[in-house]
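Entry, Tuesday afternoon. Goal for today is a structural model of the target with pyridoxal-5'-phosphate bound, before we commit to ordering more compound. Inputs were pasted exactly as handed over by J.K., no edits. I checked the ligand SMILES twice against the vendor sheet because last time a stereocentre got dropped in transcription.
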Amino acid sequence: MYRALLADTLPELRGRIAAAAARAGRDPGEVRVVAVTKGHPLAAVDAAVAAGLDRLGENRIGELEEKAGLVEAGTVEWHMIGRLQRRVAPRVRGLASLVHSLDSLGLAARLERMAPPGAPPLPVLVQVNVSGEATKSGFAPGELPAALEVLLDLGSLEVRGLMTMAPFTRDERTLRATFRSLRRLAEEAALRFPGYRGKELSMGMSNDYECAVEEGSTILRVGSAIFGRRP
Ligand SMILES: *Cc1c(COP(=O)(O)O)cnc(C)c1O
């Protein structure tokens, strides 16, 4: 069932990404897709792998461990996109190629403290709560410079960029403003911190990825537009 579904959804997704990139004068090759398999059974993962998707995302550490354990190592990159509970957070190291959801200094401190000696730095994105919704986690935009000051000094983390979740709305002005703000924050960070090389902007989900591509996203996190509604 998932294989047949992906035969429809992937060409459509790729076409829309290419069209959005063209509207913005961007190379569609700059935009990567993390296929979000959370909530779907292993059959979705198998279909994704068969379709050549090589970046998969999960939002819970237990589900990530379970699915990653069932896929041949090295076949796909796993991305942690959901909130990391501090207690279990260290388990993400060695499992996720990129953590999109570094949302507090407490979490960062815990990851730093629990890093095995000599471990390679864990690639992370700093989550920013651009829209300020109480239900969303992440640093407030105004807190970001001070947070980066701390984060860029931690030897066990490597900040690769920023991530945000836009409000769930069809209102294009709101979406665009959210994505544009994240891009501006990244530009400001690049000016403020000369050694900072965080080029990634993880923004755009099923509801809003075309707008995100137009506004400079480099990583889309797409679930339902690929795999259908979560069962
Ligand atoms: C679930 C989830 C997504 C994907 O959502 P869809 O609307 O299914 O594309 C993206 N990002 C995060 C952080 C998520 O939790």
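The longest helix spans residues 2-23.
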